[in-house]
Polysaccharide deacetylase family sporulation protein PdaB
Amino acid sequence: MPRFTRSLLFSLCTAIVTAGSLFVAGPSTAHAKTETPKAIYKVDTKQKVVALTFDISWGNKVPEPVLDVLKKEKVTKATFFLSGPWTLRHPEIAKQIKNMGFEIGNHGNLHKDFSNYPDSWIREQVAISEKSIQQVTGVKTKLIRTPNGDFNPRVIRCLNNMGYTVIQWNTDSLDWMNPGTQNIIQRVTKRAVPGDIILMHASDSSKQIVDALPQVITQLRKDGYQFVTVSELLSGAKVSSTTVH
């Protein structure tokens, strides 16, 4: 084979391999830039601030006493995650939450694990609850706590695409298990850290939260903590988040 022909073939082979390498590298590089979906459970801060959060999806016996405690203890900053059906069944309580200046987030429509359903179902359910909450309170929600705290990367990505930030918790009061008033107080006050998001419930299933809440508030204040909403927490400090694999 003439030297010129061999040289030409070598050049062509080199070009093909190089082009192939560039083609493969493209998607890999793009994938590396894709952010892993995350759910927020606390923020990194040295300030002694925490967010008290309350999920409500059932009943009308506990929500108002919880609001009474917050008013009596002069807590003006907290975040309530409301389910759509509950909001429609108890509009006056939902309006009271709004009128007291508390932040309102979305807790979904049907109380089912989002990860068991396709994106279309998730979008439909969240849209229904969003509409219900806005209809009653005038608030268009941007924060969501999924039912049962259930999620996976696909669920978070779907919710993010809807404009939602997924909020979890770092300290779980376990109040829904009704473990005893003192156990609830101890769990919250001993586990709370600066930048914490604290999970509690104002549903009727949480039968001991009304008795525990005043002491939780008092002890956290003694420990130097101030109360803020989740949005204030997120805007005031670097976000520390759970990465879902």
Q: What stands out?
A: Residues 38-243 form a domain with the TIM Barrel fold (CATH 3.20.20.370). Residues 1-33 have pLDDT under 50 and may be disordered. The chain has nine helices and ten strands. The longest helix spans residues 3-33.
